[in-house]
Amino acid sequence: MKEAEIRRLLAANLFCVLSIILTAVVPASFWDGFTVLGTHLAWLCICSVCVSTLNIILHLVLKPNLSPKRSSFAHKISRFLKCCIYFFMSCILFHAIIVLYGAPLIESVTETFLFAVLLSTFTTLQCLCMLGPNIQAWIRVFSKNGATSIWESSLQITTMCSILGAWFGAFPIPLDWDRPWQV
Question: Are the C-beta atoms of 120 and 52 separated by less than 8 Å?
């Protein structure tokens, strides 16, 4: 059983990596002048949409959480709306944190918000797919030794690495503002 779960988790993560690579390669064949750096806003949108869609599809196909599901339509709609609100709140929170860490407040609001959406896609959306809008489950998973399954451990690792990667990727930038290529 555990080996099968590891294979399913590996396949899911490989699909996610493949989708990110494809978002950098496939649009260039359809869109003249597309580059990840040259058209970064479009790439952020494409990457967020592709990763979001893939995460939702993988969650529906693989069904990693075995929690008891209520079958009422009203419960499913309520849960979906809560997930949408939580995702939007995480985008706003990440945007505020990014601005507090030094991103321009007004000049680059689109770039900053799209980066916040991408970061929310890699962190919050996966948590919402796995754990739903249950705050107690989130606290349990992200507390010390709170993960009870391999999927929750992967969720911890992916979320923490996404946040740390975003921070480590941006942290040396303010050190070189006197360089002409950054002005």
Answer: no
User: Is the C-alpha dihedral spanning 92, 155, 10, 37 positive or negative?
Assistant: positive
pTM over 0.70: yes
The alpha carbon dihedral of 137, 138, 144, 147 has a sign of positive
- Of 9-13, 37-41, 94-98, 115-119, the poorest mean pLDDT is in 37-41
Sorted by where each begins, the domain ranges of the chain are: 1-65+73-170
Q: How many CB atoms lie within 10 A of CB 73?
A: 8
Total count of residues recorded for the chain: 183
Residue in 137, 14, 117, 7 with CA at minimum distance from that of residue 65:
137
In angstroms, how far is the first alpha carbon of the chain from the final one?
55
